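for the writeup, i need someone to sanity check this before i put it in the appendix. the sequnce is what the collaborator sent (i think, or maybe the updated version? ugh). structure was predicted straight from it, no edits. if anything looks off just tell me and ill rerun, i have time this weekend
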Amino acid sequence: MTSEEASLATRAELNTELQSLLRRAHGHGVDVEGGWECRNGPEHPDWDVIVTEVRKNDESE
């Protein structure tokens, strides 16, 4: 994270950042579905992220 980036303190803030990231990627033609390994070096944990498209219901934005 650079000094220009805001830190995330809540799940809601994380969700907002993920929404923004996925929308930008999708808007630029990146196929975001699938599994993503996030290797972060020895000072942070590694994560495995799975992205799947879900069906919108009538109440979705």
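The mean pLDDT is 89. The CA atoms of residues 16 and 35 lie 20 Å apart.
thx in advance!!
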